[in-house]
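Email to the structure team, subject: Uracil phosphoribosyltransferase model.

Hi all, the expression group asked for a predicted structure before they design truncation constructs. Nothing fancy, just the tokens so they can compare against earlier work. One-line instruction: predict Uracil phosphoribosyltransferase, return tokens.
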Amino acid sequence: MGELYVMDHPLIKHKLTYIRDKRTGSKEFRELVKEVAMLMGYEVTRNLELRDKEIETPVSKTTSQVIAGKKLGIVPILRAGLGMVEGMLSLLPAAKVGHVGLYRDPETLEPIEYYCKLPSDVEEREFIVTDPMLATGGSANAAITSLKNRGATNIRLMCLIAAPEGVKAVQEAHPDVDIYLAGLDEKLNDHAYIVPGLGDAGDRLFGTK
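Reply from the structure team: attached below.
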């Protein structure tokens, strides 16, 4: 079973409070989501492999360490996942960015993929899938499946908030995927909204209704 990490850093908790607040406007909301994504990225990348590198400081030669291993890819689930990309790229400027677009079928309520564009070297990359909200888990599962179908073998899921139902759904469908959250909420309501949640992340990011 993949690991579940719920962040407990004071700065993340502080910023998440203002992300949740309905009085927070789109400009500040976008800035806060970017900042929290960057802070979360510190933990999401904690176990990246390192290798030794010989360098020379202004004082002497020494052996230091740099990131080794597989190359990184960030894959936002359109459209709300876009809000987390800039924060991650500020930490990982060399990462490539893919995109997965999904919409929900109005009759079956199942996620339907309408767009997928990934780096050409999928098999060589560690992917971080971003989406602010993990509600039922349907979109996250579909996006992860899409990556796996294209050859990805190392995937992590990064969300601002989640309902227990969504976490369970992803863990059951993709037990090899670790999940990183800024907050784990109480439940889903009858309309599949996370409670207490933060509303519709896409609308709040982009000022739509």
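The mean pLDDT is 93. Residues 26-44 form the longest helix (19 residues). Ping us if the truncation boundaries need rechecking.
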